[in-house]
Request: fold
Amino acid sequence: MTFRARHLLGIEHLHPEEIRTLLDLADQYVDLNRRAVKHSDALAGLTQINMFFEASTRTQASFELAGKRLGADVMNMAMQASSIKKGETLIDTALTLNAMHPDLLVVRHPHSGAVDLLAQKVNCAVLNAGDGRHEHPTQALLDALTIRRTKGRLHRLNIAICGDIAHSRVARSNILLLGKMENRVRLVGPPTLMPAGIGEFGVEVYDDMKEGLRDVDVVMMLRLQKERMDGGFIPSEREYYHRYGLDAEKLSYAKPDAIVMHPGPMNRGVEIDGEIADDINRSVIQEQVEMGVAVRMAAMDLLARNLRAAKDEGVYV
Reply:
């Protein structure tokens, strides 16, 4: 199996073969997670620390569950009550944690690049659980696994990513991953929610949902990230739903077997119609949640193997 990374900070530096290796292992963990006994000893004896500087439900619970199922000692740090609130810098926090000799550090941070900076200061493997508008690599990987298991392949598909592209680290990671795997990616949304220089990403850009969804295999909706907006990006939620919310009429322009995705949490009646979100024949939103645990298990397993190999070679002490 080929996976050379020391950390998982983003999709940008992963090779397609590394992506396939991780997804193949995640497939095995999907099977494990569906058994009565869901435990492995892949991380036995290792310590995992989860540091979430932003609120999270799915991602934090998923990482915690993944670590425990692999046999790690898992600690969740309450960042709201940490020394960061007393003025300690991120680097000092990293140095303090490093002195405790953790093996895996899972970090979500509101500032782009913060997780990369932290990774430079510790001897353990670091996993990016989302940093600012930069990347959310495990979300893109779980989306890829969901697509591959549902469509039977992860190449030469037409995939539309719709909504708030400008503020979405999920969109960025998915654009990178799906492009590496030779898919045709379309971005659909209002011009106010498209990032500058988006044409450099090798994607097609549409501001009309019906045209953007025409004959696509996958419809990936995004959450309106109002907490990252500092101006009038949309006239109103009602108008946004009318033009860009996914409903049955807009979905009819996609292929008849097109699947519907959403990273969650969903704003029903804003980004997506509730009936579409719950349609068991089209929506794979719950499957995405299931795949998230398996992907995070695979990522931590592979990074732990590389960490152990490096320690055996005397690279880290």
